[in-house]
Amino acid sequence: MPELPEVESARRLVERHLVGRCIVRVAVVDDRIVYAGVAPRRFARVLRGRRVEAVRRRGKHLWFELDRRPWPAFHFGMTGWFEVYRCPADRPPFWKVEFALDNDTRLAMPDARRLGRIRLLADPEHAPPISELGFDPLLDMPDAAAFAAGLAGRRAPIKAVLLDQGFSAGVGNWIADEVLYQARLAPRRRACDLTTAEAHRLRSTILRVIHKAVDLDADNSRFPRAWLFHHRWGRNSDAATARGEKIVHATIGGRTTAWVPAVQR
DNA sequence: CTCAGTGTTCAGTG
DNA sequence: TCACTGAACACTGA
């Protein structure tokens, strides 16, 4: 599920259903991996009875503002997400936490692979890991000059830099590939070797792709057909874009990378 | 049975 | 110290 658009979609879901409501019960599972730095039982005890005042996001991290600190913070890893329902029987498999609200609504976070994290922090925005994030393209994208300056100090492949959450928070594997395809940049190019014009093109492409995905509520079935997204999955050798361009798969920045050599330079 | 995967962290290297 | 790379983490589904 979780890159910036999916997490923003989850944020809006929770905002619709939880803001202004009180948490009457918190159910937890005893999972010391997903719960990071807090015992699940304490997490439940501290949050019961609190009122939700706002839901915030930065990069792939999301947290609740409550009427009293500390506040819960969530990261979805690869397989986490939020589900809202009313009937207790609809509690999803692999759930890690379930909040019951004062209007019979329930919110659960399932995470099959357990790479997600649930924290309890006095000030999530100003504590690691959120405080160590770089810019968020939706919240505080730097201007063109500052963006180019950021790339100039990096010798790693541009793909690896985009994946670095300390550079661009919220960009994950498919967004990085999509943006490089649409900006016509080869993923192995060193970030510091991009020209000013290429850096500016990359910056505006990041904005365009992320805004579009968010506008579509991260529903990938509605992403434009011309996007690489629909054609990149599976490392099959006959993969091609909608325009018939050959897609190549490689490992760059430690992740599977799909790109189109005929278009990306 | 094997392996890849919409992610992050940390040890090791230069 | 910094930047970067690759393995580890943990588990499902193809």
Task: Characterize this entry briefly.
With 265 residues, this protein is of the alpha+beta class. It has helices at 4-18, 40-47, 144-152, 158-163, 173-182, 196-215, and strands spanning 23-28, 52-58, 61-66, 71-75, 83-85, 95-101, 106-110, 117-121, 248-252, 255-259.
How is this structure best described in words?
The strands form three sheets. Strands 1-6-7-5 form a four-stranded antiparallel beta sheet, with helices on one face. The chain has a four-stranded antiparallel beta sheet with strand order 2-3-4-8, with helices on one face. It has a two-stranded antiparallel sheet with strand order 9-10. Strand 2 (52-58) and strand 3 (61-66) form a beta hairpin. With 265 residues, it is of the alpha+beta class. The chain contains six helices and ten strands. Helix 5 crosses helix 6. The mean pLDDT is 93. The chain folds into two domains: 4-132, N-terminal domain of MutM-like DNA repair proteins (Alpha-Beta Barrel); 144-259, Helicase, Ruva Protein, domain 3 (Orthogonal Bundle). The protein binds a DNA duplex (14 and 14 nucleotides) through helix 5.
